[in-house]
């Protein structure tokens, strides 16, 4: 049985860094694989930092076609959700900024001969797991045992691997905080103090919860979220990170959020705007080891 990268599920880490890389022009796949060899077993470093290694779908199909699921694809074209697909994604998370910075600097140095940094996001856990809006994030996340089933491919090509999405959202907290709490709760679809879902007859059709609940064959589509707040006083928001065994779940949720099919837009998009968007394939430890040699 293939083994998912353990950092996907590692809990209790409050400091996060996300790095996205572009391959240098003309760089051969073999050169990237050689540079990544020290990360062939990305689990937990001696300093307690978890490392997760993902690849842009096109890049992974080129590097390891035998381990690429048929439905692996780049971020879609969708009005309101910019696509900023890159080639390699490294997610490092641990308990302290100091060791985490050392590890991410080492990763950048490792890849410098073959790739350039296209995006870096430093995230953190905010209070008791809240978004900067003050609402608890990830309330509907599956329990850890169920998360493996939700997030990773059970069998076939890519078994043990996971599809992932990353988006950097920029919040307009001034506008959101100007709303009375009751109106904020109507936007989100949950109570602010304790994240209780509003009743169907109270929750607006434009609420975030309403737009994100998608049922197929009587089952609600689930994803495994690992998002973190980020930012400075001047610019801040949520780095949305999620995993799924089926990549079309991300696309369906995005289309619902931006009203692509029915014209009903998630009202949360009035107060937060995505500025990046990418899909990734996060291979199993066995597939990663085979590709890197």
Description:
The chain has nine helices and twelve strands. It is of the alpha+beta class. It has a single domain, classed as 2-Layer Sandwich (Alpha-Beta Plaits), CATH 3.30.70.3420. The strands form three sheets. Strands 5, 8, 9, 10, 11 and 12 form a six-stranded antiparallel β-sheet that branches. Strands 2-3-1-4 form a four-stranded antiparallel β-sheet. Strands 6-7 form a two-stranded antiparallel sheet. It is globular, with a radius of gyration of 19 Å. The model has no long low-confidence stretch (mean pLDDT 95).
Features:
Alpha-Beta Plaits; alpha+beta; 9 helices; about 25% strand; six-stranded antiparallel sheet; about 25% helix
Rg is 19 Å
Number of extended strands:
12
Proportion in helices = 25-40%
Classify the fold: give the CATH topology. Alpha-Beta Plaits
The helix-and-strand class reads: alpha+beta
CATH architecture: 2-Layer Sandwich
Shape: globular
Number of helices: 9
Strand content: 15-25%
Taking the alpha carbons of the first and last residues, their distance comes to 19 Å
- By CATH reckoning, the class would read Alpha Beta
Uncertain segments are none
Biggest beta-sheet profile? 6 strands, antiparallel
The figure for the number of domains is: 1
Could you tell me the mean pLDDT?
Answer: 95
Order of helices and strands: EHEHEHEHEHHHEEEEEHEEH
């Amino acid at each position: 049985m293939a083994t998912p990268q353990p950092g996907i599920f590692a809990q209790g880490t409050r400091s996060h860094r996300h790095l996205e890389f572009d391959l240098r022009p003309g760089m051969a796949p073999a050169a990237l694989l050689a540079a990544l060899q020290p990360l062939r077993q990305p689990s937990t470093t001696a300093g307690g930092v978890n490392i997760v290694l993902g690849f842009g779908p096109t890049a992974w199909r080129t590097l390891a076609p035998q381990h690429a699921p048929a439905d692996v694809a780049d971020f879609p074209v969708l009005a309101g959700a910019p696509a900023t697909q890159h080639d390699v994604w490294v997610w490092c998370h641990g308990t302290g900024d100091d060791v985490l910075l050392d590890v991410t600097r080492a990763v950048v140095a490792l890849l410098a001969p073959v790739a350039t940094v296209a995006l870096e996001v430093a995230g953190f856990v905010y209070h008791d797991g809240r978004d900067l809006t003050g609402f608890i994030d990830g309330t509907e996340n599956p329990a850890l045992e169920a998360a493996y089933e939700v997030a990773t491919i059970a069998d076939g090509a890519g078994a043990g691997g996971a599809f992932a999405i990353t988006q950097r959202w920029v919040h307009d907290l001034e506008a959101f905080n100007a709303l009375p709490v009751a109106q904020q709760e109507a936007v989100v679809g949950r109570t602010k103090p304790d994240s209780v879902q509003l009743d169907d007859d109270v929750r607006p059709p434009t609420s975030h919860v309403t737009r994100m609940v998608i049922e197929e064959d009587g089952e609600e589509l689930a994803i495994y979220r690992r998002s973190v707040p980020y930012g400075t006083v001047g610019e801040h928001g949520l780095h949305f990170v999620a995993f799924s065994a089926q990549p079309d779940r991300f696309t369906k949720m995005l289309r619902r959020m931006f009203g692509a099919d029915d014209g009903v837009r998630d009202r949360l998009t009035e107060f937060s705007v995505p500025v990046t968007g990418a899909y990734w394939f996060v291979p199993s430890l066995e597939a990663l080891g085979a590709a890197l040699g």
